[in-house]
Amino acid sequence: MNKLISFSALASALLLASPVVNAQTIQTEKSVLSIEKVAEGLEHPWGLAFLPDGRMLVTERAGKLRLVNTDGSLSAPLQGLPDIVVNGQGGLLDVVLHPDFATNKQFYFSFNQPGENGSSTAVALATLSDKAISDLKIVFSANPKFESRHHFGGRLVIQDNNYLFITLGDRGQRRDDAQTLDNHHGKVIRLHLDGSVPTDNPYVKDAAVLDDIWSYGHRNIQGAALHPATGELWTHEHGPQGGDEINVTRATLNYGWPVITYGEEYGGGTIGQTKKAGLEQPMHYWVPSIAPSGMSFYLSDAIPGWKDSLLVGSLKFGQLVRLELNGEKVSHEERIMIGQRIRDVRQGPDGAVYLLTDQINGQILRLKAAN
Description:
Blueprint: E1 5-7, H1 9-17, E2 24-27, E3 32-42, E4 45-50, E5 56-60, E6 64-68, E7 92-97, H2 101-104, E8 106-115, E9 118-128, E10 133-141, E11 156-159, E12 163-167, E13 187-192, E14 213-216, E15 221-226, E16 233-237, E17 244-248, E18 284-286, E19 292-297, E20 310-314, E21 319-326, E22 329-337, E23 342-347, E24 353-357, E25 362-369
Parallel strand pairs: 1-22
Antiparallel strand pairs: 2-3, 3-25, 4-5, 5-6, 7-8, 8-9, 9-10, 11-12, 12-13, 13-14, 15-16, 16-17, 17-18, 19-20, 20-21, 21-22, 23-24, 24-25
C-alpha cells in the first residue's frame, strides 16, 4: 500500500541544517512554496483553531491555552482551565470551535483528566474570552482511568454541526482493551455536541457495549478529518515499530489492533498477524513508521496542484506528507521536508497550510504558494 515517495532534496538539506525563519522557499512536485514562521514560543503546541477575527486558539501540551494575535504575538495563558495531568504524551491536547462559535464563543478541548486511579482523556466545552475561559462543562471522560504516560488519542472532529467524534488511544499497557467493548481504550467515540449519546449510535441497544462507542481496535489516533465529498470520518493512528495506518473509520468496524498490525514490538518481535478475517485492513500504511500527527484534506486552489490532497504531519521525520487519492486508495505520496516535528496540520481561511511544530519552543509555520 505504500506508494512512490518524492523528496525535495535541496530544501530538505537546507531546512535540516537550520531552523525555519521568515521566509524560505521549498520546491515541491507541484509548485514552489514559501514557508514562513507565524509565531513561536509555544511549549509543545498540540492543537490549532482559527477564530473568525483572524486570531488563532492554540493548545500547549504543558497545560496552557493561548490566543495568537494576527501579528504573531502570544496572549498570556488563558485562565479557567480544569486540572490537567501533564505526563509523557498526556496534557492539554486538541481544540475545535463549536459550529455556532461566532455567536456563542464556545469551543471544545481534549485533555488528560486526573482521577482516583490515574487519568484518562476527557473533553470539555467552554466559553472563550480574551483572558479566560468560563462555563466549563465536561462532555466526555474516558473510562477506566489508568496510570500511564502513553496513547491518549485526543483528536476532535465535528460532523454535520451535530456530532462530536473523539479519538482515543489504548493507553500503552492496556492494548488488549482495544478489542473489548466495555471500556474506552482504543476506540472512536460519537456524541451529540452537548455530550449526550445519539440514539442512532451503533451500540445503544446492546447492554454489553458502551453506548458512545463508534469503532474499535485502534492503537493511538492522533489525526482525524472529514472527507469533503462523503462526509465520513478518516483517521490515522500510530503503529508500534512500523504499521502507522490511515483508515476510513466506520461504525462497528474492528480495525484490528493488537490482533493485526504491520508493525512489530519495539526492539523486534511479532505482534499478532497482518491480516485476519473480520478485521479491517488499513486504507494505507507506513513501514517504517513516520509517527503521524495531525491530518487535513486540502480543499483550496491557493496552492497549485494540491486541491483534494490529504495532508499528514510526521513527527519522526519532520515532514509534511501529501497524499493523492483515488477514491479510498492512495495513488501517490510526496514527502516535503520541514525539518521539525509536525504535531498538527490545518488549512487556514486564506488557503495556506498551517503547521504546529512539537518542541519546547514550538512554532506556527505557514506554507503558501511563493510569489
